[in-house]
Amino acid sequence: MKKQSLKILALVMLFTFGIGISAYAFITGYHSFAELAAAEDPSSYTVKTNVVGSDTTILAIHGGGIERGTSEVVKALGGSGKYNTYSFEGLKEADNGSLFMKAINFDEPTAVSLVNQSDYTVSVIGAAGDDEVTYIGGQNKLLAELIRLQLTAKGYNVQTLSIPDRIAGVMNSNIVNKNKLFNDSYQLGGVQIAISKGLRDKLATDSGTLNDYSGTINQALSESWPTIVQLMEKINADKGQGFLNRFNPEKRNFDKKVDKVLEKGANNHQELIEDVKAVSEE
Length: 282
What we know:
By secondary structure, the protein is of the alpha/beta class. The chain has helices at 3-21, 33-39, 70-78, 109-116, 141-153, 197-205, 207-235, 249-263, 269-280; strands at 45-50, 56-64, 84-90, 120-127, 133-137, 157-160, 181-182, 186-187, 191-196. The chain has one domain (17-223): Poly-gamma-glutamate hydrolase, zinc-binding motif (Aminopeptidase, 3-Layer(aba) Sandwich), CATH 3.40.630.100.
């Protein structure tokens, strides 16, 4: 095959793969909230928050008409009264996609302040595709795995993402990873849940599915996650100073132990808890 043909084939495969997971990977959008606010009429969007003093914040940075279904999930989770919630929602009659800001550029002041004050963060965004798929990413790999296991147990199709996937949510600049330092030691980061259009459309119109989906995430956050946090604190017992953050050798040691937990391949959330306990006691 000629080199030119190979180049074309490679570009087609890259384009197809990228669109299959995330349409917004190819959307530039606004590069900051200041840029958006200067260009858009204030009536075209709104910011909704509900701060209940929780250590956990759930975000929909592409809510309303921008990525239909994402703010619905956040609102449903907020209905439990257990989490702070934030939604940036498009209110236009059409073309709400013009209000788009990538997660790595999202710096709306209210969201930034809320995330900075939170121990744990979960961001719900959209992905392309008519199939009903949930893509899990973010720097907090243990919480991501916990949510994956519990959604999978309820029959949802869940795929785990990491670099080089375009919506892996692992970059430091992603707003979901800008939460408080874990135990004043280092950044733990958050979880990014990217939901395909097919599933988002269903969540936006089927209250039964919405309640089941959000209720499953709520179970992970409220029932299993606190137990894992206690065990994580044992792993992190000899923590360094906060200002060392990601360069702290204890952070690297912690990450290795998290990877060791994940390598055990838990089949359900109970097994994941047991694996964290085993590693914490080594």
